[in-house]
Amino acid sequence: MMLTGFLFLLFLTDGVYLERNCSYQDVLNHLNLNKNNELYSMSRPVKNYKHPTHVSLEVLLYAILDVVEKDQKFILYVWTVMRWHNEYISWDPNEFCGIDNVSLPTELLWKPDLTIEEMTEKDKAPPSPYLTINDKGDVEVQNNQVLVSTCRMQIYKFPFDIQSCNLSFKSIIHTARDIRLQPSDNSSEATEWSREVMRTQYEWLFINMIVTANNASDMVNQDIVIYTITMKRRSVLYIVNFLAPILFFLCLDLASFLISDSGGEKLSFKVTVLLAVTVLQLILNEILPSSSNRIPLIALYCIGIFALMLLSLLETILVMHLMEKDSACQDNDADKDQSLHEDCNKQRKANLHNCREEEHKWTECACIYDVSTSETPCELLPVAKEDNSSKIEEYHALEKLSDELREMEKTLSLLLNNRKEEEKPGYWTKVAKKVNRIFFIFYVIVITLFLIIIFLQWNNSEGSIAT
């Protein structure tokens, strides 16, 4: 008895040491799993073809790399896990030192032919070279994939928009009779785990991931698992770089009403601001896709402000035309006043010259006498003296009148100058100022209503996101 117990203890001790020499290859040899055995790689791993292979799928979102609105592309980095059962694989871990799973190259086993309907480019990340099997026959394949997929962008409320992009997984050739596809996690789990592993989100904020299983109603169709990724755009940069500058240009256009309409500075200023808005519209055209069903609100925002500023420019042209028309009439009146003033000066100078000639003649007649005879013509002297004195008095009266006319001329010139300086605006100038005042009030009201409607539409989008 003692000898038998000793031999049994020795056997157990040797057994413990033998367990340390177990390897994964022993498991593979036990399963006869190698490249030459087509049982594992050539066909679906079921012993009865009527039994479908149940495939579970798990998808986690690692990163949102890019969203190209112009090309309707969605580029993301995901982690996918596929699990299914292989009926030809099983072993007892106790026979192989407790080994319950083995990793082996992926080409040794059959794999489900899953694809993504929305994918437009081949996966850029290298596939995982290994898969894992366990003692119960469950097979698991993990892959990191960079996916370039199509996504129908709803850009009506850009840049305050939310986008929902789908990843639809299904088999390429197998129907529901062969493969039954089911997600391994629900929407809340997929969303929570994706947030935990998220590395980068580009300009987007990840909201959630909704998992939907569309089971085939009959065996000739295919099961489809749809992962809907919902994300919200970070709009701060678009507000700072696009929306705010256009609003500032609109404020500058409003401030231009303080510039005088008499010169061309106001017109050139408005044209410059209008061209600046046009440049921003060209930039926007490079961002938004041309295949949108509805005109985006940001396009309506730009077009509306552009139209209002264009209307303001046309109003400025009309006001300047009216004032120019009134200015032309005032120039004609000034020319008439100037010509009349010159005629009066010429007439006054001619009258003064005639008076001086008459005075000279009468002076000469009064001083004539006969020097040779030294006799004074007494009979003519009284008459000459009387005529001379009357002419002299007349001359002095005319000279006094001339001085008074000069004073009146100076007074009239001063009054005319004051009139030109303080001249009241003409009829068309009054009309232009009234039109400008009425249009400014109308302009402010229309701008206020327009901005309120646009921002309320954008705010509704943010409210729908919050709910």
Describe this structure as you would to a colleague.
The protein is of the alpha+beta class and about 475 residues long. Helices cover about 50% and strands about 20% of the residues. The protein has eight helices and ten strands. The chain has helices spanning about 1-20, 25-30, 185-195, 235-255, 265-285, 295-365, 380-420, 425-465; strands spanning about 55-70, 75-85, 100-105, 115, 130-135, 140-150, 160-170, 180-185, 205-215, 225-235. The strands form two sheets. A six-stranded mixed sheet has the order 3-5-6-2-1-8, covered by helices on one side. Helix 6 (about 295-365) packs antiparallel against helix 7 (about 380-420). The longest helix has about 70 residues, at about 295-365. The protein is rod-shaped, with a radius of gyration of 52 Å. It starts with a helix and ends with a helix. Residues about 1-20 and about 365-385 have low confidence and may be disordered.
What average pLDDT do the residues reach?
81
Give the helix/strand class.
Answer: alpha+beta
Biggest sheet character: 6 strands, mixed
Query: What's the helical proportion of residues?
Result: 40-55%
- Give unreliable regions as ranges: 1-19, 365-385
Helix and strand topology:
Elements: H1 2-19, H2 24-31, E1 53-68, E2 73-85, E3 101-105, E4 114-116, E5 130-134, E6 138-150, E7 162-171, E8 179-183, H3 187-197, E9 204-214, E10 224-233, H4 236-255, H5 265-287, H6 297-366, H7 381-421, H8 427-466
Helix pairs in contact: 4-5, 4-6, 5-6, 6-7, 6-8
